[in-house]
Design a protein that fits this description.
Layout lengths: L5 H27 L2 E3 L33 E3 L3 E2 L6 E3 L25 E3 L3 E20 L12 E5 L9 E5 L23 E18 L7 E3 L1 E8 L2
Antiparallel strand pairs: 1-2, 3-11, 4-6, 5-10, 6-9, 6-11, 7-8, 7-9
């Protein structure tokens, strides 16, 4: 076998280096993961159109079309499915807390939990720290309603004292004593409310509300948390 000349050896090493660099960059891109639509399965709508005359301040306008797909890294799933739920009201007026994560999003009678009046919350234990990209929830979609003082938080502990982060807050006057928020009120529909969690890491997810424009009670049809195990 012929020995390579110094020049040829240098060229060979340069090519190998370039190939290694390309492979390293490709591996980095693969590690980052391509963004794909999260696998949301929406329930059947229970009413047509969105009413325009709801007397609720700071109400966002209907989009008028289906929501755009929400993109996240491949492999992200609903890590809340079947997970334990506790609440500020452990004895719901209607339903059981397990229904919050049971996968039933229909919203018909028997498909939702009704909590007492005033400020109430549900807390989901994801079982282990997760990297969370989206939180999707339905309070009620049998008829159009606006739920008040909706606040969504994640934390490292079930008491919400460690590394608490607020991802959504439309309580503009801090009535619920969780701080004043800047997000808008919205009408409940079969699409649910999707909150961008931006890859927040945490084990516990908590959702607050303070009644709705129809009555003082609080409801949950389903909560989904799209994420993957935190590294």
């Amino acid at each position: 076998m012929k020995k390579q000349t110094p020049v040829l050896a240098m060229v060979t090493l340069a090519c190998l280096g370039a190939t290694a660099g390309l492979m390293e960059a490709q591996a980095s891109n693969d590690a980052a993961g391509q963004l794909v639509p999260i696998p949301i399965q929406l329930p059947k709508p229970m009413f047509e159109g969105t009413p325009q005359n709801l007397a609720v301040p700071n109400l966002e306008k209907p989009l008028g079309r289906p929501r755009d797909p929400f993109l996240a890294p491949a492999g992200v799933t609903n890590v809340a499915k079947g997970k334990k739920v506790v609440s500020s009201d452990m004895e719901p007026v209607i339903g059981e807390l397990v229904q919050v994560t049971d996968g039933d999003k229909k919203g018909a009678e028997g498909s939702f939990v009704e909590l007492g009046p005033g400020v109430q919350h549900v807390t989901i234990d994801l079982g282990a720290p997760q990297e969370i990209f989206a939180i999707l929830f339905w309070h009620f979609h049998k008829t159009p309603r606006v739920y008040l003082d909706v606040v969504v938080q994640v934390a490292d502990d079930g008491d919400f004292k460690k590394n608490v982060r607020t991802l959504f807050n439309n309580d503009h006057d801090a009535t619920s004593k969780l701080g004043a928020g800047t997000d808008m009120n919205y009408v409940e529909t079969a699409e649910g409310k999707l909150v961008d969690a931006k890859g927040s890491k945490g084990r516990f997810v908590r959702l607050y509300s303070r009644g709705n424009n129809a009555n003082e009670l609080n409801h949950y049809v389903e909560v989904e948390v799209y994420g993957r195990p935190a590294k």
